[in-house]
Amino acid sequence: MPTVPTRVLIADDNEVVRRGLASLLRATPRLELVGQATNAWEAVTLANELQPDVVLMDLSMPGLDPVDAIGAIHAPRVVVLTLGNDVERRERALAAGAVDFLLKDAEPRDILCAVLLAALADAA
Questions:
Q1: CA-CA distance, 115 to 31, in Å (whole number)?
Q2: Strand partners of residue 36
Q3: 122 exposed, middle or buried (CB, 10 Å; 0-12, 13-18, 19+)?
Q4: Is the pTM value of this prediction over 0.90?
Q5: Does domain 6-123 correspond to CATH entry 3.40.50.2300?
Q6: Are residues 52 and 73 in contact, defined by beta-carbon separation less than 8 angstroms?
Q7: Is residue 1 scored above 60 in pLDDT?
């Protein structure tokens, strides 16, 4: 029985981070990279256009506050991947609708697990 891959959108203003995450996602058979956003406005637009299952989003991007962007992204699940472990910002992101919060120093397998679990939660 064929398995439909989990469609993922990356939202991060750092090109090196986007490239690294893209390589990680492309190397994982059950995941499909469908787009990359460089700011929160673009993340909202692409999420609405591309309809990914999961958005992997940084909380430090220019333009629209990424926490506000999380609230504007309704269909896919949002997994936050960011540098700072600011408790208030984490709570705001989760209250806005993010389903998980990881730091960028997380192990690659933990990032992949968070994305896959977010997609499963959406299917449940």
A1: 9
A2: 10
A3: middle
A4: yes
A5: yes
A6: no
A7: no
